[in-house]
Specification:
The chain is of the alpha/beta class and 474 residues long. The chain contains 16 helices and 16 strands. The chain has a single domain, classed as TIM Barrel (Alpha-Beta Barrel). The termini are close together. The model has no long low-confidence stretch (mean pLDDT 95). InterPro entries: GH, GH_1_N_CS, Glyco_hydro_1, Glyco_hydro_1_AS.
Amino acid sequence: MAKFPKGFLWGGALAANQTEGAYLEGGKGLTTVDLMPTGENRWKIATGHIDSFAPKKNEFYPSHEAIDFYHRYKEDIALFAEMGFKALRVSISWARIFPNGDDEMPNEAGLQFYDDLFDEMRKYDIEPVVTIAHFDVPVHLVEAYGSWRNRQLVDFFERYAKTILTRYQDKVKYWMTFNEINMLLHLPFVGAGLVFKEGENEIQIKYQAAHHQLVASALAVKACHEIIPDAKIGCMLAAGETYPYTSNPDDVAKAMEKDRESFFIDVQARGEYPGYAKRFFRDNHLTIEMEAGDEELLKNHTVDYIGFSYYSSRTASTDPEVLKNQTSGNVFGSVANPYLQTSEWGWAIDPKGFRITANQLWDRYQKPLFVVENGLGAIDEPNADGTIEDDYRIDYLRKHIDQMGEAIEDGVDIIGYTSWGPIDIISASTGEMKKRYGYIYVDRDNEGNGTLKRTKKKSFDWYKNVIASNGEIL
């Protein structure tokens, strides 16, 4: 087993919109995810096609209560501390701080909630790793401004970022700007609050919105470096190496094209749009409107590290027959890889792909990496005595952590690993509870029934030993 460096940040990762609940408590405003029910309408909304901003009475909205982390965070953090967490990745809900997004003054109750949350983490020496924007935009910004298609959101986001950076400068030393920024291309309402009208040029709107987020990200990096000089601030992408299905040069070129889709990270890490991105814009007749100073801002304020999620690899083909056999992985389309097994949700299970992905990111950017999401979504069935024996999860994580260690041996600089979701949470893609990731079981079903009682799974003690041994005991 490869050795992990001293001070490696072992822990777990959560998001406000999938855990907190209390969706209108403490002065919080309505966010985009609060409009996303479970069921067939969720996917339509996620892709930017929504006919009303009012929650419907006959729909179930899982974010409204989620797992009630807002009221139960002390209990949950105590359990994370028992596992020995060195770090916990969380996000701040923009609408808890600025309920409408464009407010002149922040909401003190929201600010105080995160003060209390970070204080509780610090009590156990758990390092907060904070995502500034994790898949929730204040609904008012969508209704009044068109969300990130509008340049004005850059100013609103900068105000929000400066507010929280200033408030928590003594409590938070690891920050990230946008969660899985490349998800904007696949789930534009989730990633950027984008809503499309019939006949609009959706691809033009997506890339213009992405540019606005990249400018906003650079401004947040600038603010962080000025306000908290000893902090580190990173970007974050949904990663996963794309393999060519065959050695046919057309398949290899297609796989390269898919991997280059994440060029947003090139902008955040290197400070400029790469040549192939500019060609993509030309070939697709896209015009990215920039203001004077944008290019200089992007160039001068690059991130300190690359955060990424890894759940599965992907496979690309140009053969029409092969393309008929599609699978999925974190909403990215992929043809089925005949050499890999899949999860209950059709995601390819590829531990070695984790090592390959980490190496490719390191080779490409030469900046420290932070694995901020990795895990297995599965249906956990409690035994008659209430215990949960999730050996399949242990097997998945053991193999992936082993390959992460191999990547470190390869020379990849990885500063930490926060597995996704250390406690069961609602799924971002489906809104389900039965798709569970946690070391801790939460008594709640897809319809919102249950006591919300927390129960340790078998993986709880396993991960505790992994952390205590700094990755030597798997």
